[in-house]
Amino acid sequence: MSSLLTPDVQIFLATAGDYEGVMAISEGIYMGVDYLPYRYHTWLKDPQRRMFVAKSEGKVVGFDSFLLVDGGVTAVVQGLRVADWMRGCGVAGILQRFCFQTLRSDHPTVIRVRLTMVENPPATMLNTYHIIHSKAVISVFISAEQLEETIKILESRVSATCDNCIPPVFLEYSEVHNLFPGSLKEEDLLPGSFLMQAWLPITTNKDNLDLMHRWKVQWFCSYPCDALGDVTGSSELHDVKVSFNVNNGIKQTNETISKDDITASTFPASSKSFLGFLSLGSPMFPVPLGEGKHRLDIDLFGTDLSFAKIHVLYQLKEAVKKLSTGGSIICFVYIEESLLAGLNGFFEGFTPFPIWSKQLVLEMDLTAARIS
Q: Per CATH, the architecture of 2-110 is what?
C-alpha cells in the first residue's frame, strides 16, 4: 500500500524490514529513553494498531502510528518522528493527514483522535485540537549501585510521613474490572475520566482494561477508607496487619486481613476525606540510553500525598524484583499538579532526569475536522 503525496515523499505501511530505518531517524530522541526500539515489533503484531513510514528516495524519513481504543471510537496517535534533515519540510503533516484519511476510510466508527504532548501546542494546532487533560511529571535516575539505598531511603520517608496509610493492594485482572463503577468513583480519581497509562490516554472501557492486562500493567489500589488507624505492612503485598483505632468505633485490634477483605466497607463511612488512590505501573523495558538502563512509568490517580508516596514505593519495589543484576532505572511519575511539591520533596537528593515536566492530552473531533 502506498500513496504518492509529493514528488519526493511516499507513505507506506510499516513492516519489520523498516525497523533499522526507523531507528536511524530516532537516534537521540527523548534523551535516550525512547520506547519505540523496544515496542516496534510488538506494535506490528497488534491488530488494533496501524503503523506508517514516510520514505524519500527509498529511505525512511518519518514514522507515525495510531491505536484504536475506547471500543473502537477513538484513535490515539503515537510515535510521530521525522528525520532531522527533513524537519520543517512538511513530512509530519503529510504523515498525520494520511493517518486521518486512513481512519476515515478504513475505520468509520472512529469519531475522535487523541495525542499527548510535553509542551503547550502552537496556536495553529488549537484550531483543530483542544486540551482536555494535563499532569505534572517527576523523573529521576536510579543507578544499579543506588537501588538498594534508594529503596531504604524511600521506606524511611514513607514511615516518617505515612504512618496512617494502609499499604496499597495489588489487583488481579478480575478485580480491575470491578473498580469502575464499584469501590472507586471515576469522578474522584480520574479527571476527565482518563486512565493515562504511560502516555496513552484511554477511558475505563472494558476493551481498554483488557488491553492493559495483555500489556501486564501493575495495578495497585488504596480503597476509599475513612478511619485509618496505625498501619504496618506485612512482608507480603497480599496481606496487611492493621491496628484498628477503637476511638473510631472499630473493636478489632492487631488483626491481619487479606487484601480481598479491604474495601470501602472495611471502615466506617463517617468521614469522606479520603476518596481512594490508584497507581498503574508499566512493565520496565530497556532503552537506548545505555546497557542495563531501563525505563519505568508510574501513573498516579488521586490527590492524597501520603498515599502517593506509598504507591510510588510499592510500584518501584515491584519493578526492582524484575530488574536484572546490574540494571538501573529511569523512573517517570505522572501526578496531579497539587502533588508536585510534596513528591519533589519525597525524591529530594536523588539524581533528576529532566526531560519532561508536563503531560498534556489533546483531542480532535474527527467528524468535524477539515483534513485536506
A: 3-Layer(aba) Sandwich (3.40)
pLDDT in tens, 168-218: 999 998 899 888 877 788 888 987 778 999 999 999 999 999 999 999 999
Crossing angle for the helix pair 147-161 and 305-321, to the nearest 10 degrees: 150
Strand partners, 363: 114, 130
The C-alpha cell of 142 is what?
536510579
**Cα–Cα distance between 8 and 20 in angstroms, integer?**
21
- The pLDDT tens digits for 17-60 are 999 999 999 999 999 999 999 999 999 999 999 999 999 999 99
CB atoms within 10 A of CB 131: 14
Return the HEC string of 58-105. CEEEEEEEEEEEHHHCEEEEEEEEECHHHCCCCHHHHHHHHHHHHHHH
Q: Is the dihedral of CA 299, 303, 304, 309 positive or negative?
A: positive
Query: What's the CA dihedral at 352, 334, 132, 365 to 10 degrees?
Result: 100
Strands (DSSP E) contained in 192-292 are 195-197, 200-202, 218-222, 230-233, 239-243, 255-258, 277-281, 285-286
Using CA atoms, how far apart are residues 40 and 36, in angstroms rounded to an integer?
5
**Domain range summary for the chain, segments of one domain joined by +:** 2-110, 135-359
Nearest to 202 by CA among 361, 32, 41, 35: 361
Distance CA 281, CA 189 (A): 16
**Residue with the three cell numbers 520506547:** 35
The DSSP result for 320-342, as a single string, is HHTPPTT-EEEEEEEE-GGGHHH
Amino acid at 268: P
Q: Which H helix or E strand runs over 123?
A: none
pTM score of the predicted model: 0.86
For residues 275 and 223, is the Cβ–Cβ distance under 8 A?
no
Q: Report the half-sphere exposure of 290 (CA within 13 A, side-chain side).
A: 9
Residues 6+ apart with CB under 8 A from 109: 72, 73
**Max alpha carbon distance in the chain (Å)?**
79
The answer to whether 183 touches 224, Cβ cutoff 8 Å, is yes
Determine the Cα–Cα distance for residues 302 and 189; give it in Å rounded to an integer: 5
Q: Where are the alpha helices (DSSP H) in 244-303?
A: none
